Amino acid sequence: MSVLKRLLPYPGLRVLISGGAAGIGEVLAAAYLEAGARVHVCDVSEAALAAFRDRYPGSVATRADVGDAAQVAAVFKVQREQFGGLDVLVNNAGIAGPTAGIDAISDDDWQRTLDINLTGQYRFAHHAVPLLKDSPNAHLLHIASVAGRLGYAWRTPYAASKWAIVGLMKSLAAELGESDIRVNALLPGIVEGPRMDGVIRDRAAQVGVPEAVMRKEYLNKISLKRMVSAQDVAAMALFLCSPAARNITGQAISVDGNVEYL
């Protein structure tokens, strides 16, 4: 196989993406579909799922709250029935969590952030691994964040969950290597779009500066002085599902233009 062809994802992959009906998850789903994969997404939003089904009628979309163990188990029942197995799990679902000082963050907000961002990824990996062990091209991809390698003031629950995801990935890569399951994490940086707009707006309000000033501060943190796109993240995800990446595992890969600090 030529080097160029090795850069293409394995054909016919069966892909499951949590939180896949909107945002980065939707862009990931579209990229995998374009590459010829069979895609199943789950999401908590009925509206997002309905829109996703309209845009991608050849895919499967299931409602599930990743914070609910029974609903996660039901997703895998659909996966087995519709696809007969799994080749790629993209553990993507997550929430921003509160923007506040540690003394102002409620126990409920802290716990909800960890339950969705971290425990949700455990739940999906727990159910996915038996299926991945039967795949010849198995890959478990965790979506973390640049906040999984840097401290993030006023966003401690979010940062704590993303650092923990990297630890989960590293541990699973060591655990599952003998089963030929590769495990990696993508750490998106400051991703342009509505979600980042909200983060910037909340951070500006927290520290009492205009939103435009806060946006410039965020760009100044990036070596390339620009935000990344969801398509940048999806491109790396596709590469990691290609023969060229067959020996890449246990890696936390930043797609961020080199964010220097948060």
TrEMBL record:
Pfam families: adh_short_C2 (PF13561)
Nucleus as UniProt keyword: no
Gene Ontology terms for molecular function: oxidoreductase activity, acting on the CH-OH group of donors, NAD or NADP as acceptor
Keywords: Oxidoreductase
Listed transmembrane segments: none
PANTHER family documented for this protein: 3-OXOACYL-[ACYL-CARRIER-PROTEIN] REDUCTASE, SHORT-CHAIN DEHYDROGENASES/REDUCTASES FAMILY MEMBER
Family: Belongs to the short-chain dehydrogenases/reductases (SDR) family.
Name the record gives this protein: SDR family oxidoreductase
